[in-house]
């Protein structure tokens, strides 16, 4: 059953319904966002998370934001819309899908600026729904394009959550595994728990178990040992932003997994939609890395696990250099040995810029 990660309910005056991912795996509960501030908060606090899902949340968030704009002329509306997109863009900096989604919404408003404000609002709702529906198709295509890399009987390591919860409903990295299973392959997945917020154990293990996929949970610091024991034959992860040269930002810890995979001669795959590429950024050095609150590290899930007053560094993402990536699997095809040339060769006219 596909996961209803994020849905729009009603017409232009409607609301967003999303699975509160902070409560999983113990509680599967929907929350409703009726206004701009509540969806900003949902993105910031990771109730909705994962690059493509944040892109959809941003686009739907725009529709919530424009409910509050009560002006009659299109020019003033467009100025107010810019405030809405800027505000939503301040929620999380790393996943480029958020900025891609917001840019798409702005573009649609511009294209419709000769229409009435009501008509522009309708066009924006339709665009947000289109982004969501496209993501469903894209994820399935990523699954198709990647499944050949998964051999029958193999073990696969994944980090963080790049499943249905991180997209409209089917995932990117996990889409490849779902597809491999649909093809009748027997696979065994090792899920890194993914400190500090445990997206691997709370979300990936939960999703895979529900899909009937054999999953084994490990702590992040066990991955090298698992590789040495030859329990995994490849690694597959998602991405939050891919620079023009293929350097890839993903959940903190992904970089170390790539180094371990290289050391053990294990292929390292990234699965991501074209909307995760940011070709305005030359290399991973320019990708903004979100830093989150120290309490996520010192207080785990409620209990203090570090001395009071200790210094904490809590980057939410890191960058895996392109040289550590065997291939990037997209909906348009596979980019082997990612480099500027190989990326441009595949993406060609699909290239987008956020700036
Ligand atoms: O902080 P999160 O949970 O939003 O981080 C998510 C990840 O790093 C995912 O791997 C990435 O967004 C790809 S999701 C298809």
Describe this structure in words.
The chain has 355 residues and is α/β, with parallel strands linked by helices. It has two domains: 6-140, translation initiation factor eif-2b, domain 1 (Four Helix Bundle (Hemerythrin (Met), subunit A)), CATH 1.20.120.420; 143-350, Rossmann fold (3-Layer(aba) Sandwich). Helix content is 39%, strand content 16%. It is built from eleven helices and 14 strands. The strands form three sheets. Strands 6-5-4-7-10-13-14 form a seven-stranded mixed beta sheet, with helices on both faces. Helix 6 (173-182) links the parallel strand 4 and strand 5. The longest helix has 30 residues, at 117-146. The chain is globular, with a radius of gyration of 20 Å. The mean pLDDT is 96. It binds 5-S-methyl-1-O-phosphono-5-thio-D-ribulose.
